Automatic annotation (TrEMBL):
Keyword terms, alphabetized: FAD, Flavoprotein, NADP, Oxidoreductase
Cofactor: FAD
Protein residues bound to FAD: 13, 43, 79, 347, 354-356
Record keyword NADP present: yes
Family assignment from sequence similarity: Belongs to the ferredoxin--NADP reductase type 1 family.
Pfam families: Pyr_redox_2
Domain FAD/NAD(P)-binding positions: 4-168
Gene3D superfamilies: FAD/NAD(P)-binding domain, NAD(P)-binding Rossmann-like Domain
Provenance organism: Sphingosinicella microcystinivorans
InterPro entries attached to this UniProt entry: FAD/NAD-bd_sf, FAD/NAD-binding_dom, Ferredox_Rdtase, Ferredox_Rdtase_adrenod
Protein name: Ferredoxin--NADP+ reductase
Length: 434
C-alpha cells in the first residue's frame, strides 16, 4: 500500500524531508509539498541575501527532488485558518510534517517598538527580497541614521543592503522597488548594536569581511570594545577570524572618500524607542559582561535615528489545533513528534538557528521517525487534497507552473540580474497560467 505524506512548507527543511522520505515504504510513497505561496524554496528565495547568489544555488538540489515522480509541489495552498486545516490533512495523509519555518520577528519587548519606523528583519528582508507580504513596507530611508539591533548574519545582511550603491547590486536578484528606494536613500550612518562584545558575536567571516569592501561605506569599530588580544586564541577558528577582521576595522581609519559609516557598537542593549508619532531615537543601556551574560550598568545613551531594524530572531506562526510553545516560539514537539501522524522539522521544530545545511539532518531524522511510527492505511492522499482544494476554491500551483513563473521572472530580469521577481501573488498566478 502506498504511503501518503504531506509536507507543509517548501523551504530547505521541507525539501530535505522529502528527499529522505522518498525511500520510505520501499519507495512506495507519494509526497505532496504544500506551500502557501505559488513559489517554492522558502527563505532561499525570500531570506538569503539577494547579493549572495551562490548560496541560493542550493535550490537546484531541491528542484531535483521536486521533479521526482513521487513528489509533487502544491503551491498557493495555505494550511491553517482560511485554508486547509491540519486535521483535514491528517484525514487525507498517513503523516503530515510541518516545515513552516519561523516567519515572524521576535518582539523587542520594549516601549515604543510599535512606532512607525521600527521594522523587524523579517519585514525588511522580505521587502528587499520581494516577499508578497512585504511589498508595501516602504522603509523610511529619508533620515540619515539607522540602528540595526542584533549581532548575527541577518543584522549584517540588513546593514550591507542599506550601505550599498545600486551599482553594487549587479548580479543580485534584489527586487526593483528596493533598488529604486535604496537609490534615493539618505542613510549615512548605520549602527549595528550588540548587547555583548566582539567575542560573543554570531557573525561568520565572509559576511564581516564584506563590510570592508563596500564602495561607499567604511566599517568603524571602537578598539576599546575588545578584550586583550591573547584571549582571541581560545576562540573557535571561525569566530577567531571574525574577531581578527573586526580588530582590523578598529585599527583602520574610515576612508574619507566614503560617505557612509557602519559602526559595530558593543555592550549596548535597547531599552526604549523614542519619538512622537515615529521613531526619532533609540535609548540603550550600557552593559558589561558578567559570566558571559550582558548585565545593565544603568548608564543610558540615546542614538538619534529615523529607522530601527530589529534582527533578534524569529518565531513560528501558530496553526489552529497544533500545540504551540509560546515562550520558545515554535510547535511543542518531542524530537519532531507533535502528535500521532503529525511532525515538525527545520525552524518550526528547533527555532531559527543553524544554516541551510542544518535542516538536512533534521529532515532525514523526521523521515526515520515516520519509518518507525507509520504504516500506510489507504488514505486518499493527493486526490483527496485536490478535491478538498477545489471545494474550497483554492487554486493549486504545480511545480511545472512554478517553472513558468520562474521563466517569466528570468525573462524580465534587468541587465546582469538573474531574475526580476514578481512581488504580487496575482502576477505570479498570471505567469503560472500563461
Ligand atoms: C535573512 C536570512 C538570511 C539567511 N541567510 C542564510 C545564508 O546565507 N546561509 C544559510 O545557510 N542560511 C541562511 N539563513 C537560514 C536559512 O534560510 C534557514 O535555515 C532555512 O530557510 C530554514 O528552513 P525552513 O524550511 O525551516 O523554513 P523556511 O525556509 O522559512 O520555509 C518555510 C516555508 O513554509 C511556508 N509556509 C509557512 N507557513 C505556511 C502555512 N501555514 N501553510 C503553507 N505554507 C507555509 C513558507 O511560505 C515557506 O516557503 C538565512 C535566514 C534568514 C532569515
Amino acid at each position: 500500500m502506498t504511503l501518503q505524506l504531506a509536507i507543509v512548507g517548501s523551504g530547505p527543511a521541507g525539501y530535505y524531508t522529502a528527499e529522505a522520505a522518498q525511500k520510505l515504504n520501499g519507495g512506495d510513497v507519494r509526497i505532496d509539498i504544500i506551500d502557501r505561496l505559488p513559489t517554492p524554496f522558502g527563505l532561499i528565495r525570500a531570506g538569503v541575501a539577494p547579493d549572495h547568489q551562490s548560496i541560493k544555488a542550493v535550490s537546484r538540489r531541491y528542484e531535483k527532488t521536486a521533479l521526482s515522480d513521487n513528489v509533487r509541489f502544491v503551491g498557493n495552498v495555505p494550511v491553517g485558518d482560511g485554508g486547509i486545516s491540519v486535521d483535514e490533512l491528517l484525514g487525507l495523509y498517513d503523516a503530515v510534517v510541518l516545515a513552516t519555518g519561523a516567519p515572524t520577528d521576535r518582539p523587542l519587548g520594549i516601549p515604543g517598538e510599535d512606532l512607525p519606523g521600527v521594522l523587524g528583519s523579517a519585514a525588511f528582508v522580505g521587502w528587499y527580497n520581494g516577499h508578497p507580504d512585504f511589498v508595501d513596507l516602504a522603509p523610511p530611508l529619508g533620515s540619515d541614521a539607522v540602528v540595526v539591533i542584533g549581532n548575527g548574519n541577518v543584522a549584517i545582511d540588513c546593514a550591507r543592503i542599506l550601505a550599498k550603491l545600486p551599482e553594487e547590486f549587479e548580479g543580485a536578484d534584489i527586487v526593483q522597488h528596493a533598488v529604486d528606494a535604496l537609490g534615493t536613500s539618505q542613510v549615512k550612518l548605520i549602527r549595528i548594536v550588540g548587547r555583548r562584545g566582539p567575542h560573543q558575536v554570531s557573525f561568520t567571516p565572509k559576511e564581516v569581511g564584506e563590510m570592508g569592501e563596500l564602495a561607499r561605506a567604511s566599517p568603524v569599530v571602537d578598539p576599546a570594545a575588545f578584550p586583550p588580544v591573547e584571549e582571541d586564541e581560545a576562540l573557535e577558528p571561525g569566530l577567531r577570524k571574525v574577531v581578527a577582521t573586526l580588530r582590523a576595522f578598529a585599527a583602520t581609519a574610515p576612508d574619507p572618500d566614503k560617505p557612509v559609516r557602519v559602526y559595530f557598537d558593543y555592550f549596548l542593549r535597547p531599552v526604549e524607542v523614542l519619538g512622537e508619532g515615529r521613531v526619532e531615537a533609540l535609548r540603550l543601556e550600557r552593559t558589561r559582561l558578567v559570566e558571559g551574560r550582558a548585565e545593565g550598568t544603568g548608564e543610558m545613551i540615546d542614538i538619534p535615528c529615523g529607522m530601527v531594524v530589529s534582527c533578534i530572531g524569529y518565531r513560528t506562526l501558530p496553526i489552529s489545533g497544533v500545540p504551540y510553545d509560546d515562550r520558545g516560539g515554535r510547535f511543542v514537539n518531542q524530537d519532531g513528534r507533535i502528535a500521532p501522524g503529525l511532525y515538525c522539522v527545520g525552524w518550526a521544530r528547533r527555532g531559527p538557528t543553524g544554516t541551510i545545511g542544518t535542516n538536512r539532518p533534521d529532515g532525514f531524522a523526521i523521515a526515520d521517525l515516520i519509518a518507525s511510527d507509520i504504516t500506510p492505511s489507504d488514505k486518499a492522499g493527493r486526490t483527496g487534497l485536490d478535491a478538498l482544494a477545489a471545494e474550497k476554491g483554492i487554486d493549486i500551483v504545480t511545480f511545472r507552473e512554478w517553472q513558468k513563473i520562474d521563466a517569466a521572472e528570468v525573462a524580465r530580469a534587468r541587465g546582469g540580474a538573474p531574475r526580476e521577481k514578481f512581488v504580487v501573488v496575482d502576477d505570479m498566478m498570471t505567469a503560472a497560467r500563461s
